[in-house]
Amino acid sequence: MAASSVILVLLAVALGSLLLVWWARQRPRARSVCVVVLGDVGRSPRMQYHALSLARRGFDVTLLGYRGSKPHDEVLSSKRIHILHVYEVNRIPVGPRVFQYGVKVVSQAMYLLYTLLLKTPPVDYILLQNPPGLPSIVVCWAVCCFRGSKLVIDWHNYGYTILGLTHGFSHPLVQLAKWYEKLCGRLSDLNLCVTNGMREDLAKNWNIRAVTVYDKPASFFTNTPLDTQHQLFMKLGHTYSPFRASTEPLDPACERSAFTELNPRSRKVTQLDGRPALLVSSTSWTEDEDFSILLKALERFEQWILDGANLPSLVCVITGKGPLKEHYGQIISQMCLKHIQICTPWLEAEDYPLLLGSADLGVCLHKSSSGLDLPMKVVDMFGCCLPVCAVHFQCLHELVKHEVNGMVFMDSEELADQLKMLFSEFSSPDNRLKQFRKNLMESKQLRWDESWERTVFPLFTQN
Questions:
Q1: pLDDT tens-digit profile of 290-304?
Q2: Does the residue 12 lie in any domain?
Q3: What is the DSSP string of 63-113?
Q4: Whole-number pLDDT of residue 276
Q5: Which domain holds residue 356?
Q6: What is the pLDDT of residues 53-73, one digit of tens each?
Q7: Into how many domains does the chain fold?
Q8: Which residues have CB under 8 Å from 355's CB, separation 6+?
Q9: Is residue 64 within 8 Å of 34, Cβ to Cβ?
Q10: Do the domain assignments include residue 168?
Q11: Residues 372, 222, 288, CA angle at the centre, nearest 5°?
């Protein structure tokens, strides 16, 4: 009798589950996508761009991720995009690190499953950023199976290679993460990736077919008009001293920054004679960016100025947040530089493109953990027609063309030589920097929305 009761209960649960699956699949719904980012939504520009492009083409978008930096205003103002913030699950400070990591992964999986099933509406697609893929790939796949949705993975990099920077590639956790990523990555219905090199590697070593969708700058990454530059410099000068004027104007009514001056009568903004050059680098302050390379190059640049070389003083702005910011901040504070000022602000989303469009040179220290992704920061710089010096790695040639739109370097010595060459005759109208800028302006780069229309939108409409 007891056995019969158990069987009846199990049959009832099974039948109820089948009915629930049928109900979830049959519910009517408009075209809809859930964009999943197990990271700070405001610091995930590519996924924000995906959400905007989908919304502009009539999709209802749920953008799920961690609260942190402010997303771009266009995302916040879109009536078709709903941002759902989730909490980041932290490791418990008890037991061995492997145990802590395992508990975190399981807790994160249960929390993500609960959120996707009970707090998000049924959708046609789940578009998942990878990395991090552990445990999000298998959770999103399970939700897709339950609801009859399709899983799209956007491969930005490999999660196991990022983990390997901290633990070493032979560590059991790293090997487990690689096995998981390789196995579960095949569960997706569609795959996007950021380079042709990654596409080929996915096909050859992981048996995953993907479509290359290059990062492209959004429309708001462009040259910054001189009057807007002045407004930005004055605003930043309230907080960061390198943007403040080093001398007072002859006319007290004039408004002066370190780079520009506003005539109050004509309302005309001009660049100051002898102004410093503005060098910009952006970073997540992680292990895959060695900022000692830039700092050593700046020290050598300073020495050349002290030795009498015809070089401008520099304002170096390193913008971003991340775990190694305090480490490098301490190193910067101990540097004795007279002609170079360094500041490390975190900029509002609307100010960052304005800064890039105001700068003279960008520097990128991103060295991919896999060698197969490309730095979004360089894409944004190119959108602002800002020449770039970038550290070399495997796939960089798919973005930076040496001596065409910038320079590629291997170490601090090579970077220092490039800075010296590019900033020589800084005030000359035909110096090398201005030629690189001209090449970028004439290249007629595609913007994100145009590129997305050609590559991604057909995938969402045909499947």
A1: 999 999 999 999 999
A2: no
A3: EEEE--SPPPHHHHH-TTEEEEEEPPPPPPSSS-HHHHHHHHHHHHHHHHH
A4: 96
A5: 226-232+275-445
A6: 999 999 999 999 999 888 988
A7: 2
A8: 224, 232, 236, 280, 317, 319, 347
A9: yes
A10: yes
A11: 25
Same domain flag for 208 and 85: yes
Judge if 335 and 422 occupy the same domain.
Answer: yes
Q: What is the pLDDT of residue 13?
A: 47
Say which CATH number the domain at 68 has: 3.40.50.2000
pLDDT at 210: 96
Distance CA 366, CA 357 (A): 20
Q: Are residues 196 and 290 in the same domain?
A: no
Residue 95: both structure tokens together: 């037991």
- Cα dihedral 399, 320, 295, 307, rounded to 10, equals 90
3-state secondary structure (DSSP) of residue 348: coil
Beta-carbon contacts of residue 167 (< 8 Å; ≥ 6 apart): 173, 174
pTM of structure: 0.86
Same domain, 183 and 298: no
Same domain, yes or no: 185 and 323: no
Instruction: Please list the ranges in the chain whose pLDDT falls under 70.
Output: 1-30, 462-463
Residues 421 and 451 in one domain: no
Q: Quick one: pLDDT at residue 10? A: 43
